[in-house]
Amino acid sequence: PGRWAMTYSDFMQSIIPFTFQEVYYEVDPKEHLRALALFDLDGDGFLQFDEFLILSAIVTTKLSTIEEVFRRLSVDEGSKEGELSRKGFIELMTLLVKGSPRGGKWASAGVLPDPRKVSDNRPLGSIIEGSALVARLFPTTEGRLSIETLLTLLREVEEEVLYYEFASHGEVQGQGPTASISAREFAGLLVGLVHPGG
């Protein structure tokens, strides 16, 4: 890729607890990450900086919070069915990114120049409007999105993150719900989940 980018594996490693392993599980995008592929605008298997901002906001926000904000915005739009317009969805995602740990620190390169050149000159709303997620969920500007459709997608993303975290702790035997890792590897996973200091 021509711009700064990360693989799906890089993204997963940036959000899961450290595993103290020398070698990390590499994600085959075709095999596991159907939901993450929705965020990859050009389908090259890499997440660009703008895609990273949106996806990290989704992964770090509780589903109940997303649902609450979605419903409030749908009421503001006058929807009795609990749906959002394209504009309402862009507003939802803008709020989520601004409220996320990484997105809350983001500033346009026009406001805060970035010598690494990994930020973006566009306003946050424009970044989200041009994202793969908006393009795929709203093929036309007149479309509407139900909370059920959004929650289904977000649960898929959550499952993929959990699977990656599970698989990153050892060699996975089997597939799907019957996949397993050794007891020792599972113990390592549990240690990574313990909150420091209690």
UniProtKB/TrEMBL annotation:
One of its GO terms (cellular component) is mitochondrial intermembrane space. GO terms for biological process: calcium import into the mitochondrion; mitochondrial calcium ion homeostasis. GO terms for molecular function: calcium ion binding. It is found in: Mitochondrion inner membrane; Mitochondrion intermembrane space. Its main location: mitochondrion. Residues 27-62 form the EF-hand domain. InterPro entries: EF-hand-dom_pair, EF_Hand_1_Ca_BS, EF_hand_dom, MICU1/2/3. Keywords: Calcium, Calcium transport, Ion transport, Membrane, Metal-binding, Mitochondrion, Mitochondrion inner membrane, Repeat, Transit peptide, Transport. Belongs to the MICU1 family. MICU1 subfamily. This is EF-hand domain-containing protein. It comes from Perkinsus olseni.
